[in-house]
Design a protein that fits this description.
- It is a single chain.
- This protein has 28 helices and 14 strands.
- It is mainly alpha-helical and 833 residues long.
- The chain folds into three domains: 101 residues, no CATH class; 384 residues, no CATH class; 122 residues, STAS domain (Transcription Regulator spoIIAA, 2-Layer Sandwich), CATH 3.30.750.24.
- The chain has a six-stranded mixed sheet with strand order 6-5-7-10-11-12. A two-stranded antiparallel ribbon has the order 1-2.
């Protein structure tokens, strides 16, 4: 039969047609396998090609696949039957496959909306309610972003004008791709400092000394440096790093690994950002003092920088110092006022903008550069630079640092975004945020920008001034654009110490995190240790290595907490079915003869020894040692019996001749001495191991008859744990202690079955839904055992008489339940040699 390509269902583009002829054979084989499993007697389907393609069917309004409407031939009828059978057995998958592979306008829009969140929120934008608030918020945020862009460029060690680019370009792409409505995208001091450390390590001042000259610079503080070449190289390094960070973030987003930020716990982030704030403070301190130092990088770099700053403290520029201190003081005071009276002040006072304008005017009017040799911004490029490709050859030198920068930048943005998303009742997509920031950094990296994330202070300004959506962000970008195009020339007299002071003033929030340590210590000492360790490591080793060290230390604490979890014996709260730790609650009572052990961790190869140790501490003895001691005692008893120094009662109890031991029942019919010389065969002896023994062997007492493992906190067992638990069960069974399991997870039984855990000794009836169920079962078993008629008890004797022992009928009270009403005698034939 001739195959013809059929069109897609009505309303679907013909460009998406799919030829299923190559897949028909595989489909028939799959349906045959499914039919064989469900209907073993079903005959195989014909293995010829279907007359109609899988796309040749209509869909009813309910979405069910229907065969061709007019099957006129045998082949068509067979085809329709096959489709019906496939639809029945495979849940309609065969019929839904063509539609799934076809394109539609609705599906295309849904895919585009998931990639471009702006298509989701912009059509629902409330112009009358939100536009004015977004404009006010955007203007306020834009002014702050302009000043912070200039200031944070100092952390990256690039000309300050490039900070304006970094405050502008990332917003353009995030406006279309981002899912947070409130964060302000742009430079952040921690990330900027991490970028700056890479820039300084790859382009130090020593690489740009003017050849053949040991002369000092214009201010007499250092050698001559080709600043133009140095700045150009540093800008190239920063933009290349930004491009690489963007690539990594896009890859992370596509691979859906936004969960990686979960490994950055709050204590770790707190310690890291506090250390970063200290690093930022030191890097800006030398600018406030206008002290020239080497650019140290790596381990102990901050210590070396501080030492050199204090060594050259005598060269401090007084004009820069005064301007910096005044800026820090005024900014911190006004920020405190904004925080305390934020409910009364409709718009926070933009103190950074006010201080910058005043400082620029004073510097220009007093000509501080010429009169006092103050360090000023000097030139700020007007307009935009043409896009430049990244230096791909540098990727290998910065790939390690780019990983940490990509993760930290993403973690900061997402954590801030989640705070405001929770506050305003909407959700952000972590993986989409990875893609949004990645594309933003790739795009901005082509325009000589450095890595962007979000700044806490800018975001707070945007939210507090009434920002509702990303429209506020795009308006703030417009304010930065005005500064780039028209205001750059006006800011050239501004002192760098003022910008550095603005950076320091914005570090207050991060420094205040130090006061979290006492609270963490009271709540959780391990979290406090993570905070302190990460902070100290980041200060000493540098931010990149410090972050890695803190992450490894945090993971180590998790491993240690799992390897050495809490455990303890549990008891019952009288009158309830609740069980709590005996050591932590006063009125908890342990069931008589029962020990309950709860191990609060998954059980695997690393902590199985801890389980065994906690088990010994809970029950008070070592099952293996008890068993070995009992074997040793039995061997001695057997030797004494052979020598005639001990005799066995008719109940199988061993006693010394002529001596009444309190722990043993005397023999009513002592044996003749002649019979003691008869060779005997050793058989099992019944001994009360908790009584005094007639041999000098110290056998530990076993005060329990049952052991319950509470597995309520055990989420998984590895193969080592399974084998070890089997061994534990056998060890306790040998000393007549029954082992039970309670409160296990739903998947535990199937996991144990796969591990061949169960056999004749280890059975499924050892497992109970709750601890109380296990305790009730044990009590019922003990009551049944106590009510048994003595003649039905197990008797194991060492006997040397050829005559059977007869037991007379025992009387029982009428009010007791007889196990067997009419039992008169029982003959027990003993093995005799």
């Amino acid at each position: 039969m001739k195959n013809s390509r059929k069109p897609c269902p009505s309303g679907v583009s013909n460009a998406c047609r799919f030829d299923f002829s190559a897949a028909e054979s595989s489909l028939i084989q799959s349906c045959n396998r499914a039919a064989t499993e469900l209907i073993p007697s079903a005959p195989p389907w014909p293995n010829w090609k279907l007359q109609s393609q899988l796309g040749h069917f209509k869909r009813d309004p309910a979405g069910r696949g229907l065969p061709p409407p007019s099957p006129s031939s045998r082949g068509s009828r067979v085809s329709a039957g096959i489709f019906r059978r496939a639809n029945l057995l495979l849940g309609g998958a065969c019929l839904r496959l063509p539609a799934a592979l076809c394109c539609s306008r609705k599906k295309a829009f849904r895919i585009a909306r998931s990639f471009l969140p702006i298509l989701e929120w912009l059509p629902n934008y409330r112009v009358k309610e939100w536009l004015i608030s977004d404009i006010i918020s955007g203007v306020s945020t834009g002014l702050v972003a302009t000043l912070q862009g200039l200031a944070y460029a100092l952390l990256v060690a690039v000309p300050v004008g490039y900070g304006l680019y970094s405050a502008f370009f990332p917003i353009l792409t995030y406006f279309f791709l981002g899912t947070s409505r409130h964060i302000s995208v742009g430079p952040f001091p921690v990330v900027s400092l991490m970028v700056g450390s890479v820039v300084l390590s790859m382009a130090p001042d020593d690489n740009f000394l003017i050849d053949g000259s040991n002369a000092t610079g214009a201010n007499g503080t250092g050698p001559l440096i080709d600043t133009e070449s140095r700045d150009a190289q540093r800008v190239l390094i920063a933009s290349t790093l930004t491009f690489l960070v963007g690539i990594l973030q896009v890859v992370f987003g596509v691979l859906q690994i936004g969960f990686i930020v979960r490994y950055l716990a709050d204590p770790l982030v707190g310690g890291f950002t506090t250390a970063a704030a200290f690093q930022v403070f030191v890097s800006q301190l030398k600018i406030v003092l206008n002290v020239s130092t080497k650019n140290y990088n790596g381990v102990l770099s901050i210590i070396y920088t501080l030492v050199e700053i204090f060594e050259r403290i005598g060269t401090t520029n007084i004009a820069d110092l005064i301007a910096g201190l005044l800026t820090i003081f005024v900014c911190m005071v006004v920020k405190e006022i904004n925080d305390r009276f934020k409910h009364k002040i409709p718009i926070p006072i933009p103190i950074e903008v006010i201080v910058t304008i005043i400082a620029t005017g004073i510097s220009y009017a007093a000509d501080l550069e010429k009169k006092y040799n103050a360090g000023i911004v000097k030139s700020i490029p007007r307009g935009f630079l043409p896009p430049e490709p990244p230096a791909v050859g540098m990727f290998s030198q910065m790939i390690a640092a780019s990983f940490s920068i990509a993760i930290v930048a993403y973690a900061i943005a997402v954590s801030v975004g989640k705070v405001y998303a929770t506050k305003y009742d909407y959700a952000i997509d972590g993986n989409q945020e990875f893609i949004a920031f990645g594309i933003s950094n790739i795009f901005s990296g082509a325009f000589s920008c450095f890595v962007a994330t979000t700044a806490l202070s800018r975001t707070a300004v945007q939210e507090s001034t009434g920002g509702k959506t990303q429209v506020a962000g795009i308006i703030s970008a417009g304010i930065v654009l005005i500064a780039i195009v028209a205001l750059g020339k006006l800011l050239e007299p501004l002192q760098k110490s003022v910008l550095a002071a603005v950076v320091i003033a914005n570090l207050k929030g991060m420094f205040m995190q130090v006061f979290d340590v006492p609270r963490l210590w009271r709540q959780n000492k391990v979290d406090a240790m993570i905070w302190v360790f990460t902070c100290v490591a980041s200060i000493i080793l540098g931010l990149d290595l410090g972050l890695l060290a803190g992450l490894l230390f945090g993971l180590l604490t998790v491993v240690l907490r799992v390897q050495f979890p809490s455990w303890g014996g549990f008891g019952n709260i009288p009158g309830t079915d609740i069980y709590k730790k005996v050591k932590e609650y006063k009125n908890v009572i342990e069931p008589e003869g029962v020990k309950i052990l709860r191990f609060s961790s998954p059980i695997f190869y690393a902590n199985i020894d801890g389980l065994k140790s906690s088990l010994k501490s809970t029950v008070g003895f070592d099952a293996v040692k008890v068993y070995n001691k009992r074997l040793k005692a039995l061997r001695k008893i057997q030797k004494l019996i052979k020598k005639g120094k001990l005799k066995a009662t008719k109940n199988g109890i061993i006693s010394e001749p002529g001596i009444n031991n309190e722990a043993f029942e005397p023999d009513e019919e002592p044996e003749d001495n002649e019979d003691l010389q008869v060779p005997t065969k050793e058989v099992e002896i019944q001994v009360d191991w908790n009584s005094e023994l007639p041999v000098k062997v110290n056998v530990p007492k076993v005060p329990i008859h049952s052991l319950i493992f509470d597995f309520g906190a055990v989420s998984f067992l590895d193969i080592v744990a399974v084998r070890s638990i089997r061994t534990i069960i056998r060890e306790f069974e040998r000393i007549d202690v029954r082992v039970y399991f309670a409160s296990y997870q739903d998947n535990l039984i199937s996991q144990l079955e796969q591990s061949t855990f169960f056999d004749d000794i280890v059975r499924k009836d050892m497992f109970f839904l709750t601890v109380h169920d296990a305790v009730l079962y044990i009590r019922n078993q003990m009551m049944y055992s106590d009510n048994q008629d003595p003649i039905f008890e197990k008797i194991s004797l060492m006997q040397e008489s050829k005559e059977p022992i007869e037991f007379t009928e025992t009387s029982q009270p009428d009010d007791e339940l007889d196990v067997q009403e009419e039992v008169c005698t029982l003959e027990l034939n003993l093995s005799i040699i």
